[in-house]
Amino acid sequence: MSYEIDDSELEAIRKKRLAEMQASTTDEEQTEKIRQAEAQKQAVLRKILTVEARQRINNIKMVRPEFAEQLEMQLIQLAQTGRIKLPLDDNQLKEVLKHMQGQRKDIKIRRK
What DSSP designation does 50 have? Predict the structure, then answer.
């Protein structure tokens, strides 16, 4: 009787290990997909931005990574719809940034 318990325990361990291996494979696949998507995004940005504009975005990314991500996605969408002249230089990028900053609401606190 203890022999059957050992087999069932062994089977449970095998199933658990198999599930762990499958989970790690999906994590690796997901990581690879994210890496590929990032590489594609960078390739598109190299086509639509000048070197100076890309450097400006990299500087922004160091300070505000979420904002830089939004900016990159917006620039890609603008380029795909043909709403910006390509390649986008640093001065044009500054104008886009001014426009994006204008959309943000400023919160002012007054103390009496």
Answer: -
Domain boundaries, the chain: 2-103
Confidence of residue 58 (pLDDT cuts 50, 70, 90): very high
Is 60 exceeded by the pLDDT of residue 41?
yes
Determine the pLDDT at residue 1: 43
Which CATH number, 3.40.50.720, 1.10.8.140, 3.40.50.300, 1.10.3720.10, labels domain 2-103?
Answer: 1.10.8.140
Q: Which residues contact 49 (CB under 8 A, 6 or more apart)?
A: 57, 75, 87, 88, 93
Tokens of 101: 């900053």
Q: How many CB atoms lie within 10 A of CB 79?
A: 19
DSSP state of 88: B
Q: CA 58 to CA 54: how far, in whole Å? A: 6
Beta-carbon contacts of 76 under 8 Å, excluding residues fewer than 6 positions away, are 41, 44, 45, 48
Contact call for residues 88 and 53 (beta carbons, < 8 A): yes
